[in-house]
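[INFO] parsing input record for Hemin uptake protein HemP
[DEBUG] input buffer:
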Amino acid sequence: MTAQIPDRTPCTTPQPVVPRYAATDLTLGHNLAEIALGDQVYRLRITKAGKLILTK
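[DEBUG] output buffer:
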């Protein structure tokens, strides 16, 4: 008895592309950047441990 393997044709629906940015590009090589969204301003901070913190 032979097991049937399901047909795995590639998905033809285009997948959306998610933009990717380097955090150091956003902070211009420093550890802090401000990001505006509408009338709100957020701060993106890179910690000494290499983590990201986003605050209002």
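[INFO] The longest strand covers residues 40-46.
[INFO] shutting down worker
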